[in-house]
Design brief:
By secondary structure, this protein is of the alpha+beta class. It has one domain: Irregular (Factor Xa Inhibitor). The chain has three helices and three strands. The chain has helices at 5-10, 35-40, 52-58, and strands spanning 12-13, 19-22, 44-46. It has a three-stranded antiparallel β-sheet.
Amino acid sequence: MKTKRGAAKRFQFRSSGSIKRAQAFKRHILTKKNAKVKRQLRGSAAVHNSDVALVRAMMPYA
């Protein structure tokens, strides 16, 4: 069983068991977004509970 390399680049497992992901909407078309929105998108977020099983299936050894 192999790890999906795209998932390995996008997700990190925290010590608490939750999965960390980057915020979306921060790659392009940033001129129409104000500074507050871009600043809030800078941080990370947790993967939603309904998606945790899918991410774990893509990364069986993490």
